[in-house]
Amino acid sequence: MTKTVLISGAGIAGLTTAYWLHRHGFTPTVVERAADVRDGGYKIDIRGAALTVLERMGVLDAIRARKTDIRSGSVVDARGRRVAAMDGDTFGGRVHGDAEILRGDLARILYDLTKDEVEYRFEDSIADLTDADDGVKVTFAGGAVQSFDLVIGADGLHSATRTLTFGPGFEHDLGYRVAVYSTPNTLDLDREELTYVGPGRTALTYNTTGDDEAKAMFLFASTADTRDPGAAQRVLAEAYAGEGWAVPQLLAAMPEAPDFYCDSLSQVHLDTWSRGRVCLVGDAAHAASAASGQGTSLALVGAYVLAGELATANGDVSGFHAYEHELREFVAQNQKLGPANVKRMVLRSQAQVRMSMAMLGLLNRLPGKDKLMAKVVESIHRAATAIDLKTY
């Protein structure tokens, strides 16, 4: 069985799909509009079934070797006083061996695993595609035209493959924006994370192992159009104007940041993830939003299942339907986490902020506080393990 498969997107979902398809005897090609795999980026968590996928790929030890190694996390008030503090894993909601790594580090590990076996076409993208009985005719932005047996869209929340196949829409804005960028480590953090909570907006900064700088991250209630970076920076500055703690310093570093990123917290809901010979995986199919903490894990598990079911079906499109049947409930449980989590992460009123700070202050003085906090994140662990992975 040799089936040619075009994968759009060299993110976590695309790289993992390419690896497993090659393992199963397919001939994958990955097209990516960027010039290379994106390094750096924000920190991400890998949980539950996704750890099993990485273990079966033989890279779990490499993942753990590149862990962020954040040792502690604290919530601070407007004057910078630590209201509550705990160890880094508890603060980040990591239990049962969960791993935290920079997104770019994970992407680089997966790319290095596949670069000698998979064709990568950087600085190009799909401009058009036509699904026919004998394959999918793809027109690339660079002008080339080529046919593939199958096409897989792994191109993220704003998937062009999804739009070309299903039409526009399907992104459901949760009413929040997230921004992240590198900033000088003016707070002298050493593998530490600090979080400040205001009404309708949360700000945090952290430093990871081996990084001389820090990352600033902002999560705030907004429905503003932030697709243009300049507009996004204005929206962010206005949202946090007058806030205390180190927020003014973090905002002052924003214009010079080389890696400024801002987007909506949105989910993707589709009645089906495939049409004909075209299928979606990862955020393109079922984005759960960054607030779920499960986007990377969903991408890893989804890619594994998609490739495995295609192999079981000998490359027939019935494998797409089997993949969806296998994954739907797992996705549904993880998508539920997004709206629930963001309401805890961004408090709507000053009264809610005061009450939350008082409760955290009380919790901070209780014995066994880390165990109490671990119970809070058990819902995430249940969702992360809500699938029995087949061995394909």
From TrEMBL:
<protein>
    <submittedName>
        <fullName>2-polyprenyl-6-methoxyphenol hydroxylase-like FAD-dependent oxidoreductase</fullName>
    </submittedName>
</protein>
<dbReference type="GO" id="GO:0071949">
    <property type="term" value="F:FAD binding"/>
</dbReference>
<dbReference type="Pfam" id="PF01494">
    <property type="entry name" value="FAD_binding_3"/>
</dbReference>
<dbReference type="InterPro" id="IPR051704">
    <property type="entry name" value="FAD_aromatic-hydroxylase"/>
</dbReference>
<dbReference type="InterPro" id="IPR002938">
    <property type="entry name" value="FAD-bd"/>
</dbReference>
<feature type="domain" description="FAD-binding">
    <location>
        <begin position="4"/>
        <end position="333"/>
    </location>
</feature>
<dbReference type="InterPro" id="IPR036188">
    <property type="entry name" value="FAD/NAD-bd_sf"/>
</dbReference>
